[in-house]
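Input record (one chain):
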Amino acid sequence: MNALDKDPTGDLAVVRYGDGEITVLRPGRFVLCAVSGKRVPLEDLKYWNPALQEAYAGPAEALERWRQLNP
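The corresponding structure, as predicted from the sequence alone:
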């Protein structure tokens, strides 16, 4: 791989999700939504589950995961 090649995961951040805060373990520009697989820019990340260590793209995805876990 050279400098001109695109690495699809090159900007993927590794994050630890806490109660009301996140800790970036490996810098990046985005995380992946656990439900939809969408890229969520770190600056837009507002929904996550600290118990499951999952990020969600928005309230609809967070609700969908809650419904999956609470039938």
